[in-house]
Amino acid sequence: MALTPLSTPPSPSSPITNNHLSDVFSDSPPTSPSTADPSDIPRLHSTHSTAGYRDGISASKERSLQPGFDEGYSLGAVFGLRVGYILGALQGLCSAHSQASEGGKGLRQLLKEAREHLVIEKIFGREWWGEDGIWRYDVQGREEEVTFRRVVDAHPLVRRWVERLDQEMKNAGVKMGRFEGREWEEGRVGNGEAEVG
Questions:
Q1: To the nearest whole number, what is the mean pLDDT of the chain?
Q2: Which end of the chain has the least Cβ crowding within 10 Å, N or C?
Q3: What is the value of pTM for the model shown?
C-alpha cells in the first residue's frame, strides 16, 4: 500500500493558503495579519522594558544626585547665613540712621547695591564655579582643612561685602561681638553695661 500525502505542497504558481498548521515550525514571520500571534508577549515586553528603564534611572539618581544634593545644600546654607548676616547688618545700620541724614542715604544705597550683588545667580555664577561644582577662587588651607565656612568667606563677592560692612560698622561706631545668653542672665544687657557702640 502506497502512502499518499494528505495535502500536496502548493506549486510556485498556486496561491498561498492560510493553513495554520502547515507552517508551525517555520522560521519566517506569519504571512498575513490573520496568522499573527494574538498573545500578550509584545505588550509585556514593552511594559517590563519601560519598568526596567525607570528602575535603572531611579537607582542611578539615588547614587549620584543625593550626595551632590547633600553637599550643595550644606554649602548653600552656609552661603545663605553669611549673605543674610551681611544684608541684615546693613539693614540694621540703615534703620539706625534717620531717613533724611546723609549717612542714611549712603547706607540705603549701599544696601541696594548689596542686594543686587549678593543674589544667587551672581554668587554661583560661572565666573566663580566650574561645571563640576568646584569653586574657581582661592581658598586657604589644606584640602582636608577646608570647611564650607572657609569656602564662603573666601568667595570674592562675600569677602568684598564683609569688608565693606566692617568699614561701615567701624564708621558708625558699632562694635560687633557674639551675644551670649549669660550676658542677658547676668543682667549686663538692657542696663547699659554691654558694649553697643
A1: 76
A2: N
A3: 0.58
